[in-house]
Amino acid sequence: SQQGEEDPQALSIQEGENATMNCSYKTSINNLQWYRQNSGRGLVHLILIRSNEREKHSGRLRVTLDTSKKSSSLLITASRAADTASYFCATDATGTASKLTFGTGTRLQVTL
Amino acid sequence: GAVVSQHPSWVICKSGTSVKIECRSLDFQATTMFWYRQFPKQSLMLMATSNEGSKATYEQGVEKDKFLINHASLTLSTLTVTSAHPEDSSFYICSASIVPLSIFEAFFGQGTRLTVV
Fold first, then answer.
1. Among A18, A28, A54, A67, which is most buried by a count of CB atoms within 10 Å?
2. What is the pLDDT along chain B (117 residues), one digit of tens a residue?
């Protein structure tokens, strides 16, 4: 399987704390994306980082990419209860950013 | 942003019947759409790539005769689960790419929860 691995599988933090999720993948990629999925719902695109980029920011999100280690991390700062969801990394090897291989996901629980 | 609409959002069907799921790109043309399946508490697994006007490309282990895909127009792809069985119960999600293909995030539908009883 080419599916990536994410850790931790589950993460529980209190509101205001930072949450860090890691993703490892197996093949060379053109880009890596992070998605959020609320329980039983569709996917929300969070951020895309290209293979020649090392770090990217979007609001409270910070994504890093280390292609030598085939890994990425997603940091959510100052978490909120509304951030409670599953987070998936997804890689694309075709250059289209569309045919995606998803990681196993991290279930984040943010409590008040 | 681009919108992908999936219908129905949930469906319950009897074992042995067929179910059709639609995936529409509402404000853009999509030559390529992708169908994913997600079992409870698991990740999304790509089932097939749907190309407008040609046959779909199925991933290894996905039965093309069981999961019929039709992409007859630039805005609509359908997935038909034929002779559904309880083990087909899952969350099915489509995504679409803007024409022409470029480095761009995929737009996902809201998903269809299929329950086969």
1. A67
2. 678 999 999 999 999 999 999 999 998 888 889 999 999 888 999 999 988 888 899 999 999 999 999 988 889 999 999 999 999 999 999 998 775 545 566 789 999 999 999
The size of the A-B interface in CB pairs under 8 A is 67
Give me the residues paired with residue B37 across strands.
Answer: B45, B92
Contact criterion met (CB below 8 Å) for A68 and A86: no
Question: Residue A102 and residue B43: Cβ atoms within 8 Å?
Answer: yes
A33 vs B105: CB contact, 8 Å cut-off? yes
Strand partners, B79: B21, B69
CB atoms near residue A83 (< 10 Å): 18
Q: Does B108 touch chain A (CB under 8 A)?
A: yes
DSSP-assigned beta bridge partners for residue A66: A71
